[in-house]
Fold each of these.
Amino acid sequence: MRFRIRTLLLFLTTFFVSQKFINAQIRLPNVFGDSMVLQRGIKIPVWGNSTPGAIVVAKLGNIQATAKADREGKWLLRFPVFKEGGPYVLEVAESGKPDAGIRLKGILIGDVWLASGQSNMEWQVQQAKDAGKEIANANFPQIRFLVVEHSKQVRPQTDIAAGRWKVCDSGNVKDFSAVAYYFARKIHQDRRVPVGIIQSTWGGTPIEAWTSRDMLLTSPITREKTLSNDTLAPDREDFVQDSLNLVRFWNIIYNPQNNTDKIVPATGYDDTDWTAVEMPNLVKGFGIGSYEGMVWLRKKITLPQSFEQKDLTINLGHPEMNYSLYFNGQEICKNVWNSSPTHSYTIPANLVKNGENTIAVRIAMLWNGGGLNPADDIYITDGSVKISLSGKWLYKKDLETALPKILNYQYYPTVLFNTMINPVIPFGIKGFIWYQGESNAGAAYDYRKLFPMLITDWRKRWQQGDLPFLFVQLANYMKTKPLPSESEWAELREAQSLTLSQPNTGMACIIDIGEANDIHPKNKQEVGRRLALIANKMVYKQEGIPSGPVYKNYRKEGNRIRISFTNIGLGLSTKDGKEVIGFAIAGTDKQFYWAKATIEGNEVIVYSDKVAEPVAVRYAWADNPECNLINSENLPAIPFRTDEWKGITQK
């Protein structure tokens, strides 16, 4: 029966596709639209579909270009070089059929950048630092964004699933990539040209998902895993079901099930069979293993009479990204992907009771994470008296529909290249900005090959030469360790630094603005600014120092090692004005010790009383290093090591 249904569906699909082919009209892919930005300074490519053999006539402003559709109805034309400006109208039609053509308006000519990567590039303006103020002031009509909708396929696609160009204003900017927006804003302000961003991002994804099949098959690192994708097919049941499950998965997280939001937070709800847990605590402290799903927390707290009829402030520290807070049965907040810039909320006076009050939190436990960060203070206050919320809480899982199992095919090799990169080629661009690597940290040594592969792959396919490729090095993250140690994240940063050997690449170091308890640091303004500094220097040929000190070489002087740097500007110093920290030194036994370091002119002298015959130095070599060396532009020194000893990710 299933075979007959599939056969019928295949017949109907073939029939309608054939009818569409026979009655074809002019069509442009979704990367083109009203309010888009087209690339200045190059011959502008425009492509689409039409009747096979038809002559396609396009007009941009007063300039006309033509092309002939091939036997499949595909065509591509190029306009001559335009300078920045606009707005223009683009008209495209088959010759002799102007009334059946396409007309796109509000088009600007400027610089277009493709912004891609995982969640730190995807992180929205509304989720980042100073969101309210930034959104209110986002009046930049010459900045435009096209946010490519998430999509995954096992074969290269010719069009993006969805997405349209939007003008940057207070209504639209909140959904844009924060890093890409702050990059675009500085480029626009510095260069006085329109800026377009094609945003193609997906959180949690590895670099292999963004690389083409052809390129992945060239490396023994990725060949076998890529070939395993051949067992997939677009209509394979689990591939289709995974997309459906993904919709259900997030629907459950965003929308309380079984009417729990009305029942569980109520003051009279019976929670006598719930389990006690000390809060704040993370998922491991709940003793529920690798549980993934929705967990409810409740706490009854007696407030002093002085709190009655007052607006109160409740602070939850730093909860895991998706949660809702209730007070005496009323929803106080619904936080989606850390959409709140802080986790302090106002409890209206009319909800506050003298005596016992009930706090409830609905929180998503995802990817072996979740809960309230133990490092944070949780409390409720009237502004003068603060009452701790730490201590005994009650929790209950499985009150809601279980989350469906997600196979996460977006993590598979090449599936995102197929749907979110390939369809926008060969749209004219100025270059790429990239923020990714967290998902590859466990195999950081392989990233030395994988990252240059992606850069080469994309440049080859765009056929615009060695397009500028600017990227962000991983920030400092996780718990600071008391002693020098090995680090997957340090090795990933090293792989990123080594990629600078590729032509026309630039790296923004952000080792000083990460957050120990958040893989998504909030200060995206500085990330975008530092990317723009590199673009101004490397791409737009502006004078200046675009990044922090870069390790150049070293030489031994007895029991000391002298380190030389480039990119020092007017000199080296420390960010806090204190002594230099972040250096470690080792002898032939490969045992590292924290080192003393002093600045002498344009060099740093490193030594330790515990290492009589030093042979190696490392700087900022940790998940979350304490380091403070900067140049005269207040930009941080890039992490490095002088040794080439085998790392923990090297097989």
Amino acid sequence: MPRSFPDELAFFNMVASLSGEFAQASGVEIDLVINQALATIGRFYSADRSYLFLFSDDLNTASNTHEWCASGIEPQISVLQQLNTVEFGDWFMLWKQGLPSIISDVAAYPADSAEFQLLMSQGIQSLLMLPIRNKSRLIGMFGVDVTRTKQTWSAEQVAGLQLVAGNICGVILRQQMERQTEKLTFFDALTGLANRQLMLDRIKQAQLQSIRSQHYAALLFVDIDDFKTLNDSLGYSTGDKVLTLVAQLLSEVLPQGDTVGRLNADEFLILTEMLDTDRANAVKAVTDLVEQLQAVIASQPELKLIRPLNTLSIGATLFLGDSEEVDMLITQADMAMYQVKQATGNGLAFFDAELQVQANRRMVLAHELRDAIAGFQFELFYQPQLVHPGMVIGAEALLRWRHPTRGLLGPYEFLDFAEESGLIIPIGEIVLQLACQQLAIWQAQPGTARLELSVNISAQQFRQRDFVPMIQRLLTKYAVDPTALKLELTESMLVDDFANVVDKMQKLQQLGIRFSLDDFGTGYSSLVYLKRLPLYQLKIDRGFVDDLLTDENEQAIVRTIILLGQTLGLEVLAEGVESAEQLKALLHLGCYHYQGYYFAKPLPLGEFERFLQQHNSRLFS
């Protein structure tokens, strides 16, 4: 005879208890609470198996995610994975409509039906399956199997289990949201690898583990060689595909328990642990691992289809314990990687003591530069720019750092590092602010109202999305005539995203800003881009001026630049003029704008203004 449930009160008390447990479960307890609920329901029904299936987003497949089995019943969860939903037949259509599948007697099914064959092969006599839905969207199925006897379910019991199914739906959705949040917080959206935040935590844990085990661990800084060229030539979608493939390959090669994360753009971090208690053996283990990584990247067919040669530059630092800050370990590995980049790429370098000294200096410099930005410790010096027969028409603004303990520092002391660290962005804005302040003062005075001021712009600064609005804001704030402000760009900047460079230059030109192409002749000179750029001036690099009197090739280059400027209607200015002979030669070639130590070195504001007054008054006296 079919079995029914005489104790309705006990049943609904069970349902109420399960609902409370679901409501109180924390995120990490959800899987445990679901398994406990399946066990409670299975025992109450004297069932042989209770289970939960979750569907894929497209509803094409379903997988058994949670299962309880009575004693002696073989678990099925491992084999019931990625099932095609077609296998569920008419049941699937019922679930999509929000209806349960209630089968009190499997033998009542036609013997040739798919459902009969599926259930009888497992010895199932009765079956209850309820859909788990979020609003109208089917997300899973919760079921109970009975093999030892037949089972009937009253409408109240089905309704109670539907309430349980609703509670399961709630906690599943909460779990999915928490996992998605965790994924966004701790994992890279493109590659699925650990992000910087998770890597920092893993490195800290590895430091503690290395203390306990006395085994070395290593942090590897991995950079894809020539990735920027790939991005520029093949597009960002192809670049993203390469990043995804590399991430997958790195993950597959790593030993179990090691971690790979994406740090930034084409830069990855690899944390490999439990290497060896002997440093030499640990170095060998890292070297062997890197060889595997290099080999799999170089030989991967999909990557070779995108470009034939794919290589990695890798820097490594070993650690034992937590004597170094995590950020310092990353810096060490980065600096070692940079040694590979400076050579030929496609190799491995280990961090050493000399690099440690450099790393310490860099950390101190980074801290001091941030203080300098916050404390506005920067000031401008001015190198006069003249036009034949020697009238001062303006100046090039050159940055100096008034260090609180080291005194006045020139740009060679800090600008390269500012570029590498990204601090050039706020520093560059300070320079523009100081320049606009000074132009506003000059423009309010008759003797200096027509002075021009040239400001060097870094590639990083120019690439900022808010660069044009920032210039507009400063011009408005200080009420500056924009035609007096000249922005100096380098040729190498023009290679990166040329269309965007032109667009920004045109927008700024419409405001009245003028542009000078600095160090002309040393970079990627092209008549094509020169004709498209809204330039005002070409600057002849000082390297050509240095050898102007002794090298016929340099003379030819300078002559060509001057003729090119004249042809395009551009002003040509020579920098680095240090003698009367050089000036005479430039004038002979047709260059009438110049600057250099022959006239004046970069001067603080007061000295520049005295030079201006004395020089121009002497010229016109």
Amino acid sequence: MSSWRDQILKEFTPKVARLTLVADPDGLLLEEGILEGVRERGFELIPFEDHIAFRYAYESKFRSRWDRGEHTDLVVVLRSQASDLSGLPYDLLQAGRRLSFNLGDIFPNLSYPVVTALDRGDLDALYEAQKRHAPGQLGDNATKEFVLRHVFEIAPELVKQPSDLLRVLLRRHYRGQRIPADLDNRFIQLLRQSNAFDDWPLETLVSDREAFFAFLQERWPIFLDLEAAKGTSGVREDEKPYGLSIDGPVELPFDHHDIRVYIDNLFVEGVLHSVPHEHADTLSRTWVGIGVRTAPIEDRSRRLGKLIDSLEASIPAEDAKHTDWFHFARGWAETILLANDQAEAISEPTGERIKNLQAQVDAGFAAWLFKRYAGLVNLPPVPPVMLHHLPRFLARQMGEDRTAKIALIVVDGLALDQWLVVREALASKQPGLRFREQAVFAWIPSLTSVSRQATFAGKAPIFFPNSIQTTDKEPALWAQFWADQGLMPNEVVYLKGLGDGGLEPVSEALSHPKARVAGLVVDKVDKIMHGMEMGTAGMHNQVCQWAKQPYLNTLLDLLLDRGFRVYLTSDHGNLEAEGCGRPFEGAVADLRGERVRIYPDAALRGKVKERFPAALEWGTVGLPEDYLALLAPARQAFVQEKQRTVSHGGVSVEELIVPLIQIDRRGE
């Protein structure tokens, strides 16, 4: 078989049974490629997670069709062992054929606990390696080493000196690879067998991405001093006292050819930051120049040029993993920031390149979404991929630590590029803050009533059809989610309308001795956006002004001082668009947004599309059947022609990939 998926997909022949029950303890059916394959064969999937939500989807979407005599190929997926299928409702057991899949059948020679800890996206490389190397029966440690070598390209026996270790860590953290803790521990164990890395804090650097980049950032000025000294008489000045917050060797081989290739990208993408140096004029003419601060406009145009080069070469393909788009979106956000900061200083050719790149990104992302977005909805919540995964992701943490207190701050309308502005402002006021950055997908259409509500409900919008046009039910949905997790009403806080004025209501709500979970909506950025006439650059400017005011810093202090784990996210981003004309649909549209129109039936939507042939008709993925979206064309809005606006509702990278940031204090 060419792929591990074939073993599963061969069981899905259409028209064999209208209902298939699958025991899937390892979540294999929820992997993106499998989901796509199952859907291409005409099957629809419903995960059986809780009785009530399942019953609603099952009765409303399928039972009624069967009663009308229609055939459907429905798959009900239960995340448990085959023996547990008998626990399903009787009417399902009567109607369905039964299947069961698990990783032990696909990787019979490898240690089951080691394989189950892997991200499902890593199984391709493992299956390929198993086929090629036929390893025979392997125990736990041998499996860990097999996986490290063939999936993550880490051969512990080849890591003999600092440059080897740096290369391994750079590749891992630059790509944002998620490696299970057991594999990290095995790797560290093997490294510790030689004395080469006795002074390295391996337990921190191997698993903690932010700590690793802080470790590099602290040592970069030291390396620059050494580089500058090479050009002088060769006499080294007395060692400067360097205050390093992360232990480990002081000098790193940044100039090693395996390391240099990464260093350039890290400065270009803003993961590392250039630093001033007394010999900046000399150093800026060498390869280290990208990491040396000189004149701001030169620095910016040099970074922008390199970023565009890098992004042009790395637009994810149509069958890319969602994590590839997350990585791309981070560089894209940096590009938007650089291109709008003193846009008048950008040369015409660079402006043209950005425009062309924008068109490629918009087209590539839309094509990817039509193919892969439906598969994201039911992915496991750890790590979270979509906004409605967040409550289950947080609940998992509370399950692991019964004393944990968690706050989720939803900054309505905050795009990834605007997060970079906020981060800069927060860090300048409080250098002790640490940001662990991830990203998640907003819902399509990227509207507050759809996407923010899904965030607090912890479920897809199909489960709240009656409130999909409003956000009034958020407090009840948030409280209901946590009640299902066993929390009492007085342990759950929800507050909205934050971002201005005093913090007394927040302080009062959090001071309740029982408060354990807080959902906080900060709507200041959304307000800025709806009054914005100065485009993206104006957004950056206003968001920066707001973030520099005490409000957000004080809110974070309040939460951190009270022992909350703090996560910050957004329900959707925004982008600058140009009017393509208003549809004259009278009262037939349920919602008339600038970037999206919502219709109760396909015929009405089709009529409006005739006038706007480039608009996109979006299916009802995870949405109620009568919630049909017509999305404005790329970078356009349903407003007066040529009018410019900043809005949301569509499917650009800027609107759909939003920040998810864990914020804490260094050393805590």
